[in-house]
Amino acid sequence: MQELTHYINGEMVKGTSGRFTDVYNPATGEVQAKVPLASIEELTKAIEDAAEAQVAWAATNPQRRARVMMKFGALINEHMEELAELVSKEHGKTIPDAKGDVQRGLEVVEVCMGAPSMLKGEYMDNGGPGIDLYAMRQALGVVAGITPFNFPAMIPLWKMAPAIACGNAMILKPSERCPSTSLRLAELLTEAGLPKGVLQVINGDKEVVDGILDNETIQAVGFVGSTPIAQYIYGRAATNGKRAQCFGGAKNHMIIMPDADLDKAADALIGAGYGAAGERCMAISVAVPVGQETADKLIEKLVPRVEALKVGPYTAGDDVDYGPVITAASKERINKLITSGVEQGADLVIDGRDFSLQGYENGFFCGPSLFDNVTPDMEIYKEEIFGPVLSTVRTETYEEALDLIMTNNYGNGTAIYTADGDTARDFAHRVNVGMVGINFPIPVPLSYFSFGGWKKSAFGDLNQYGPDAFKFYTKTKTVTARWFSGIKDGAALNFKAMD
Asked: CATH 3.40.605.10 residue ranges in the chain?
């Protein structure tokens, strides 16, 4: 069995704590590797080395740091197939979806190639009599990223690229379920010219997370995961005087208006609801048709599309629609929530609980499920399922549909399908959600904007990647300067009487 490592000071380093956890192949249910869980001593030494390396890295001019990002981006492209395979092997995504995972991370790296323009300060001359003022953006020092299993390439890249481009060193703790992609990305970043120690990949569990939060050298923490853990990390980081951006769970709705193109809406719901087995924080898990006729027609169009979905391992080819969920516990939780929906009175139109794939009976596969007549008091609606389950909540009016979203605890993403510009504009302006799609199902902003939710989907005042990332990973220093008159008058050649 393969024994994975940490990545410390530019090398793969075996763990010394004696503690390991299993890394599964979700398609077969078999343990394919074990990953070391770092001790506090291992973490502390890695942080100390990172702090030492960061001083010279921060003193490297931004253009040279950007050149490392340029080379890194080229290496990611060169190794795209290999990285996608690593993602699929440990997460279970199809290869096309895994390539998308890598690509969306790469796009953030590409923005960081232009870091010098994002790190410029401000200047004002003669702000007062003979007084000039200028502000500069400086690196924080050592920062940390704690990333989830569902995007093994994208989210680590969202964290490491801006942080490092700004001149920081980073301690990256990837999900212990999918660590290999982060380890390989760290190797490629070293090959691109990043000095040893500037990026340390430390595998671990809650012990390491708490160690990061309590370490005085760590200046900022970025996290993506569930809402309870996001709230915990944000609170503990803030208590310890750290800057924090913590992104949590979601319950994303799509409103389908009576004037919408229902074929396009149904296609969008299939991709947004079932892609990656629903393990996306931006997945659409709730369809909200307006009017009974719209709902009836939508269900009629969804059923054959859901029934046609091909579920299987990534090795079965690119025509597989989605693969397994991440663990046996995830599969069990999803099935329990589906059962609760039936018990609480929702109509289970398509039941994926008994799905079994020949030759992969021990894999963590969930068949696609489709609910109709779900109500907001049901567990299937209130909980983030994080699985291939789409719930339909029928509403009579646009205002009722909008209120459903506005009163939900989460505010990550939402969408509306309509042919009416006035309705779309009203929705975009009024809805209290961080990312909005208009006839667009998964409104993840392009990398030169910023990603972030509202309400219980995000904790902190700055978002991920884009302009907000450069603000988050730097601090502003303002200088007020005045120079007194003196030698600027030049030499006096005449005989000068004494004063």
From this structure: 2-248+457-481
Q: How confident is the model at residue 492 (pLDDT cuts 50, 70, 90)?
A: low
For residue 166, CA distances in Å to 114, 305, 472 come to 11, 46, 10
**pLDDT tens-place string over residues 398-412:** 999 999 999 999 999
pLDDT at 490: 62
Residues involved in catalysis? 281
- Residue 496: band (very low, low, confident or very high) from pLDDT cuts 50, 70, 90: low
Task: Render 74-126 in DSSP notation, one character per residue.
Answer: HHHHHTHHHHHHHHHHHH---HHHHHHHHHHHHHHHHHHTTHHHHS--EEEEE
Hey, what amino acid is at 232?
Answer: Y
| Cβ–Cβ < 8 Å for 349, 303 | yes
Cα separation, 56 vs 60, whole angstroms: 6
Q: Where are the beta strands (DSSP E) in 26-168?
A: 30-36, 122-128, 131-139, 142-146
Tokens 């489709």 identify what position?
Answer: 370
Nearest partner of 361 among 320, 395, 328, judged by Cα: 328
**CATH 3.40.309.10 placement within the chain:** 252-438
Burial letters 342-380, b for 16+ CB under 10 A, else e = eeeebebbbbbeeeebeebeebbbbbbbbbbbbeeebeb
Which amino acid does the sequence have at 478?
Answer: T
Give the length of the chain: 499
Domain 252-438, what architecture?
A: 3-Layer(aba) Sandwich (3.40)
What tens digit of pLDDT does each residue of 262-314 get? 999 999 999 999 999 999 999 999 999 999 999 999 999 999 999 999 999 99
Short-list 268, 291, 251, CA closest to 380? 251
CATH of domain 2-248+457-481: 3.40.605.10
Centroid of chain to Cα 215: 24
Nearest to 168 by CA among 148, 144, 152: 144
- pTM here? 0.94
Q: Is the dihedral of CA 403, 404, 410, 411 positive or negative?
A: negative
C-alpha distances in angstroms, 260 versus 263, 290, 417, 424?
Answer: 9, 10, 5, 11
